[in-house]
Design brief:
Blueprint: E1 3-6, E2 9-16, E3 22-27, H1 41-46, E4 49-54, H2 73-86, E5 92-97, H3 99-110, E6 115-121, H4 126-135, H5 138-141, H6 143-147, H7 153-172, H8 177-187, H9 192-201, E7 218-223, H10 231-236, E8 245-250, H11 257-260, H12 262-275
Parallel strand pairs: 3-4, 3-5, 5-6, 6-7, 7-8
Antiparallel strand pairs: 1-2, 2-4
């Protein structure tokens, strides 16, 4: 499949690997797209997994609704359920990075019958992250989330000079010139950056979208070079999982795990899927 629909929106999907393989849904974060998994997927395919990597809400050109309420976590999680239904899948392994990790946590907590295993790259359990905001330096690390609440200004700042500030941020985090250029170009599409920022702007509306205890086998991967997400949230995550849980810490890698630690990520996901 190369697309699916929900509520009048059309989402692009990269579908690869053996058609009859165990399915794994790969969920990207900000400001990435499904190509973030391009170096991870081939190894998963060799391990016998079928991968479904969607361009999520706001990132697919035909799935950029207006209004921050359209980007609440419940909406983005239900998009993944629509993907599973369109693919004829009762359940799948779910792997998420950054905002994709938040969606993965929500799916596993709310729809455990649809999630075979959960792998969250970088992102701790949402409740653990909230706790870390008041018990560590996480609030300082997350200052940009407050900035992103402002209308229009973030778009102007990040895309000024042909997207130079956004490109500098991505390159400073270790992304290749090609990957940074690709993501910046996608964010320069009409309405794309505002739609992507809708995920942040919907956060004040998401208090009702509480993510509770997760009861599916869970792997959390965090890296010591992550400047956006500190160790406190990661250390608190285990208390929100009532199932086999494993934490894997990658030394010296920055936030962009699918791109910069693809081989190790694929190894960890494969092992997690096989032992669940």
């Amino acid at each position: 499949m190369d697309s699916f629909q929900r509520d009048g929106l059309t989402f692009d999907v990269i579908d690869g690997g053996p058609p009859d393989g165990e399915p794994a849904v790969l969920l990207h974060g900000f400001p990435q797209d499904a190509t973030a998994w391009n170096r991870v997927s081939p190894a998963l395919h060799q391990a016998g997994l079928r991968t479904l990597a969607p361009d999520q809400r706001g990132y697919s050109p035909m799935a950029r609704p207006r209004g921050r309420g359209r980007y609440r976590l419940r909406e983005t999680a239900d998009d993944v359920l629509a993907l599973l239904d369109a693919a004829g899948l009762e359940s799948a392994h779910v792997v998420g990075h950054d905002w994709g990790g938040v969606v993965a946590w929500g799916l596993a907590a709310w729809y455990p019958d649809r999630v075979r295993t959960l792998t969250s790259l970088s992102t701790p359990h949402p409740a653990a992250l909230t706790k870390a905001m008041t018990t560590s330096d996480q609030a300082l690390r997350s200052y940009y989330m407050a900035l992103f609440q402002l209308p229009l200004l973030p778009e102007r700042l990040l895309l000024s000079g042909g997207g130079t500030p956004l490109r500098r941020m991505l390159r400073g985090g270790g992304l290749s010139r090609e990957a940074a250029a690709h993501y910046v170009a996608r964010m320069q599409e009409p309405g794309a950056l505002s739609a992507a920022l809708g995920w942040y702007r919907a956060m004040p509306l998401g208090l009702r979208d509480r993510v509770g205890t997760v009861r599916v086998p869970t792997l959390h991967v965090w890296s010591t070079g992550d400047t956006f997400l500190g160790r406190a949230g990661t250390d608190a995550t285990a208390q929100y999982v009532d199932a086999p849980y494993r934490l894997e810490v990658l030394d010296g890698v920055t936030h962009w795990l699918p791109e910069l630690a693809a081989e190790r990520v694929a190894e960890l996901v494969t092992a997690h899927v096989r032992t669940a």
